[in-house]
Design brief:
The protein is α/β, with parallel strands linked by helices. The chain has a single domain, classed as Rossmann fold (3-Layer(aba) Sandwich). It is 39% helix and 18% strand. α2 runs antiparallel to α6, α3 crosses α4 and α6 packs antiparallel against α7. The longest helix is centred in the N-terminal third of the chain and has 19 residues.
Length: 238
Amino acid sequence: MPDEQKAGVGDGGKKTIWACFSHVDDEIWALGTMANHVCRGDRVVLTWMTYGEMTSLLGDISTEEIVEKRKEHSGEIGRIVGCEVSFVGFGDAQMEVTRDNGIRVARLIAELKPDAIITWNTGRGHPDHHATSQLLMDAATYARLPKVIAPLPAHRNDITFCMYHDGHCPYPTAYVDVSDQVSKIVEVVEYYSKIYKWVGSGDETKERLRRNGRECGADYAEKFNVIRRYHQAEKYLV
């Protein structure tokens, strides 16, 4: 993967989790889930589709300087979470859901072979956010087609999609207990707060995670809409 910075790789027999978002700092609401998997020994890769070069939050500096700062920021997030980090290199606020872009992302899927993908929802919000989600869904199909991604081998294993929760989304809700990872989540949020001059973000983040937790019986939780290709049958409801 381009511009990859490794900060810890899990056992080869473990699962591979790919968290893929549009811009650096988009990952805040999945940090605990990623950290859970890192602690279990899984391979976790955090990727950003763009360098976020259209931001005005870093001051009046050149695009090249923004890119270097984003790389610096990503390395620190990778260190805190314990995951690999990388960038794809699409233009910020220029992402388009096209076949060519879908195949470009499909090649990354074929290389990574993820068991689960964490990303934005396909609904409302920044155009790059729902473009990211849609491209990943399209790419998961393209990655299954040998003639499309040749010479890479097709990745035909099932991929679970975990999208940031949206109350308007029809897909089932899933909660992840991140109570053991709150200190890492807050560390990341405070790191961004120093960069962006956010005020009170650590407390606000913890309160949102608490609200999620109250819905599922955990102290702190992250919340997703989940898509699975297949479901396992259960013998009992409770």
